[in-house]
Structure prediction request, 132 residues.
Amino acid sequence: MSRRKAPAPPGEARCTVTVCRGCCCGTGKIPGVDHAGQLATLKSGLGALARVRAVNCLDACEQANVIVVQPSAASRAAGGRPVWLGLVNDPDATSEIVGWVAAGGPGLADPPAVLDLYEFAPSRRVRRGVQD
Prediction:
């Protein structure tokens, strides 16, 4: 029996928020961060508005904790592209991500200016591993 969730119905506008929880992100290697609390904040704050998934490793360990916001279909149609955020180790940054995604995310809502401090461009090899 598969535990995979059924895909979202066609036309459902939902961003995907991918949270790294691998060898560095979400572990004691990044001390002083409530890693479980961060994931809980994303899940509770976004609920049915976005798909929040934790993955083993996004291979951008130097940027731990890494969160990738992937646009919904509507966001992609409006020009939205995945946004990689690194060093997201502050609860306020997590809250800003929740607010931005709730407002529509990449392509539909401008990110809060503070997220400019967290955005980074991963290598092509790493990006390919997360593409839809």
In short: The radius of gyration is 14 Å.
